[in-house]
Design brief:
This protein is an alpha+beta fold. It has helices at about 45-60, 65-70, 145-155; strands at about 20-30, 70-75, 75-85, 90-100, 105-115, 120-130, 130.
Amino acid sequence: MTVRRKKNGYFERIAGAPEPLTVRLKRWVNFSEADVMGIAWHGRYPEYFEEAWAELGRYCGLSYTDFYEADLRAPIVQFHIDYHQPLMLGEKFTVSASMIWSQGARLNTEYTLIKKDNTIATTGYTVQMFIEGTTNEICITTPELLGKCRRRWEAGEFKCLQ
């Protein structure tokens, strides 16, 4: 079995491509997110990732509303989590989502949860592919919604996110 723990990122960086787009959110482990031992339940981590991805999507024109209006869907086809250290009830942490440049009709996103002492709690990644909303057919070429985002990314409009 091959372990893909994050060292310098899960996805290969393309030479000359724009830097990843990253958002960071501060949050705490809430009572409803912890188990009886006061540890953040492992099933909450995808929700933490999702919160950061939703914020990233809003910033770069890939929100759920944008997908809906473009008649596109972007289901996750790969999802991976590496648990490094547990998060505890009431602990403050930062969750980041970084969209990594890809030439294909896909979204590659890396996630990191950083504890208050700057140690890594969790890393992970998702791969999303595009499908047409009404036909459920896979998009072989880059949909215009993603193409627009990439043009803005290349033009440097998202510098504040890097």
